[in-house]
UniProtKB/TrEMBL annotation:
Domain Ig-like: 207-286
Protein's cellular compartments: Membrane
Signal peptide, first to last residue: 1-22
PANTHER family reported in the protein's UniProt record: MAJOR HISTOCOMPATIBILITY COMPLEX CLASS I-RELATED GENE PROTEIN, MHC CLASS I-RELATED
Biased composition (Low complexity): 346-360
GO cellular component, one term: extracellular space
Keyword Signal: yes
Transmembrane segments annotated in the record for this chain: 302-327
Name of the featured protein: MHC class I antigen alpha chain 1
InterPro entries: Ig-like_dom, Ig-like_dom_sf, Ig-like_fold, Ig/MHC_CS, Ig_C1-set, MHC_class-I_related, MHC_I-like_Ag-recog, MHC_I-like_Ag-recog_sf
Organism: Meleagris gallopavo (Wild turkey)
Length: 360
């Protein structure tokens, strides 16, 4: 628990993909209510994801549930009342969050400022056909209360949540409804969406991965860029001597391309002399097994030197116009210079295979 970013969800989904007979699928709803959303931004947003892809969206400005994928827009994808019904539920949620935000601020003695309530609700169908369900609430980015559908109990993660836990457990119908939603309704809808969106959701585009290094102020920044992949969930990490370095990596997140695929960039700072100990590991639904990529500092370009030698030889042959002996002696000297060149640059060359650092 604890990862309330969208990326964290994607990774959660991916775990266990490899070596599986079937692929796991997930349906998630992510609600966010904010006291201070920023000017012009909706204070309440409700987003639905199938397999990590946004497929429906609602916000407190438009107050309407709208499709976000082509397959959800297709005529007959869902029953005619679907949009109206979903909109009614979302509007009612919006009212609940208005109240919850107030309650939580009171409980935490927060009289003002910027506060956020988030809720993730969802279910997974795993490779072996079993299902899993979640219902978790966070306040200001930290876990607040979570539902355990098997025991039909709630876990209060902070003291301020104990009152909520008691209330929800005293009213037995709350747990009953949550359990039914997670085990039945959610799973049924996930199967429906999987069927409707089959063509789009089963699209697989493997990432193109590029690794490069750049040295500045005695620090080597290694970058690993995965480009053009689909679906969105991906796990890109830096390994040093085979050990994941999750603490030290930085990522700007996963961003969409105009063709519906995604890209991401993950960097790590290293000691320049350790450059060859690092590997970028990429795990994605399109790959049979995780891919490993290392930085190959570009070799000093030999072509100009070789050309130089040939030109010199030809020049000598023509200009000198003399014998075989002079020609050989010059070629020999040039040959030495050519051998020295690679040693000067060696492995610490930090210009890399690409000096640009794409901004995300
Ligand atoms: C709110 O929803 C509408 C569509 O319902 C969308 O056009 C708009 O971009 C959304 N606003 C934000 C900030 O996402
Ligand atoms: C909030 O304030 C009340 C009364 O001032 C106090 O009893 C309570 O412990 C405070 N709660 C927190 C979380 O600080």
């Amino acid at each position: 628990m604890g990862s309330w970013g969208i990326l964290g969800w994607g990774l959660l989904l991916l775990r266990g993909v490899c070596g599986a007979a079937g692929e796991p699928h997930s349906l998630r709803y992510f609600h966010t209510a904010m006291t201070d959303p920023g000017s012009g931004m909706p204070w309440f947003v409700d987003v639905g994801y199938v397999d990590g892809e946004i497929f429906v969206h609602y916000n407190s400005t438009a107050r309407k549930v709208v499709p976000r994928t082509e397959w959800m827009k297709a005529p007959g994808a869902v029953d005619p009342e679907y949009w109206e019904r979903s909109t009614r539920i979302a509007q009612s949620n919006e009212r609940v969050y208005r109240v919850s935000l107030g309650t939580l601020q009171e409980r935490f003695n927060h009289s003002g400022g910027s506060h956020t309530v988030q809720r993730k609700i969802g279910c997974d169908i795993l490779e072996d056909g079993t299902t899993r369900g979640y219902h978790q609430v966070a306040y200001d980015g930290r876990d607040f209360i979570a539902f355990d559908k098997d025991t039909k109990t709630f876990t209060a993660t902070v003291p301020e949540a104990v009152l909520t836990k008691r209330r929800w457990e005293d009213d037995g119908s709350v747990a009953e409804r949550f359990k039914h939603y997670l085990e039945e309704t959610c799973v049924e809808w996930l199967r429906t969406y999987m069927e409707r969106g089959k063509a789009e959701l089963e699209r697989r585009e493997p990432p193109e991965v590029r690794v490069w290094g750049k040295k500045a102020d005695g620090i080597l920044t290694l970058s690993c860029r995965a480009h053009g992949f689909y679906p969105r969930p991906i796990d890109v990490s830096w390994m040093k001597d085979g050990v994941a370095q999750n603490q030290d990596t930085q990522s700007g997140g996963i961003a969409p391309n105009s063709d519906g695929t995604y890209h991401t960039l993950v960097t790590i700072d290293a000691r320049p002399e350790d450059w060859d100990k690092y590997q970028c590991r990429v795990e994605h639904a399109s790959l049979q097994q995780p891919g490993f990529y290392s930085w190959e500092p570009s070799q000093p370009n030999l072509v100009p030197i070789v050309v130089g030698v040939i030109v010199a030889i030809v020049a000598i042959a023509i200009v000198g116009g003399v014998g075989f002996i002079i020609y050989r002696s010059h070629a020999g000297k040039k040959g030495k210079g050519y051998n020295i060149a690679p040693a000067q640059d060696g492995g610490s060359n930090s210009s890399g295979t690409g000096s640009d650092r794409p901004v995300i």
